[in-house]
Write a structure and sequence with these properties.
The chain has 13 helices and no strands. With about 325 residues, the chain is an all-alpha fold. It has one domain. It is globular, with a radius of gyration of 20 Å. The two termini are about 40 Å apart.
Amino acid sequence: MHISSGRWLYGLSLALLTAFLWGILPVKLKQVLQVMDPVTVTWFRLLVSGVMLFIWLAATRRLPGFKVLGTKGKMLVVLAVFGLVGNYVLYLVGLRLLTPGTTQLMIQFGPILLLFGSIFLFKERFSLGQGMGLTVLMVGFGLFFNDRLVELFTSLSDYTLGVLIAFLAAVSWAFYGMSQKQLLTVWNSVQVMMVIYLFCALLITPWAHPMQALQLSPLQGWLLLACCLNTLVAYGAFAEALVHWEASRVSATLALTPLVTMLSVAVAAWLWPDYVQREEINALGYGGAVLVVTGSALTALGPSLMAGLKARRQRLAGA
């Protein structure tokens, strides 16, 4: 079973970098999706990242060997590949139907599901603090969708369909995250990502249409390249963060991602109003988004918070 290195400050820095890069990603993807389909965009992102990692590992003679995996390890690779492909494609399909902020907020279920998976697989505890955080999270979602709750539960509109698809993307991501964490016991983070990226790209190649890239405007072309590099750096930082920090704490830090997205959309809409549309969320909805982030962080950090309170009480009692 994988055990974190304990370099928490380094892990925190990597997790914050991941949250920032994931936060600005949907703003760029939304522009590229005006021309390209979700599978083709995913294919480009995975292929470019995988090839770049392959070149780096080949040049440093650190290409991974599959003999050390065994049957269990190979099954984890398969699960991680299907999990990441499912997350990428479903996320983009949902993004076509929703705004960047709403899509990113729904993806927030991913770290929460990763946390629950860590509880069952990695034997992490579920405390009272986590229960309180989960309650705050659900209240936050209720407030965020306050003006569209009737639509969500009474009709299968494009908005409702987008929310469901984004949730499935979060579920898929959780399977990927748990599989990747266990693969880190035999490969380093760069080796893991190279294998997953290349296998994912190979898996969806029959459904990709690379010639769509020729239809992109110069700006959209640069944004596609930025999305590819974002994939390389963000997921690399995420994988490395799991090496040095507990999955629960990484998940808590990633809770900031939706706020980064909403801030990015606001700034981009102000600078380029012809290209980026503002989020149509009322004040109660923004308050709900903050509660979702707060609840997600509390859920992830619950054991540490409760342990700290218990230790403090013991010190006060001893004094």
